[in-house]
Amino acid sequence: MKAFLILADGHVFEGRSIGAVKETISEIVFNTSMTGYLEILTDPSYAGEAVVMTYPLIGNYGVCCEDMEDELPWPDGFIVRELCREPSNFRSETALEQFLKAHDIPGIEGIDTRALTKILRTQGTMNGMITTNENFDLEEVLPKIKAFKAHDVVGRVTCKETGFVPADVPKDWDGPRLKVALMDFGAKKNIAGELSRRGCDVTIYPAYTSAEEILQSAPDGIMLSNGPGDPKDCGPIIAEVKKMFDSDIPMFGICLGHQLLALANGADTRKMKWGHRGANHPVKDLETGRVYISTQNHGYVVADRTVPDDVAEVSFRNANDATTEGLHYLGKDVFTVQFHPEACGGPQDTAFLFDRFINMMEVCKNAEEE
Ligand SMILES: NC(=O)CC[C@H](N)C(=O)O
Question: pTM of the full predicted structure?
Answer without folding.
Answer: 0.97
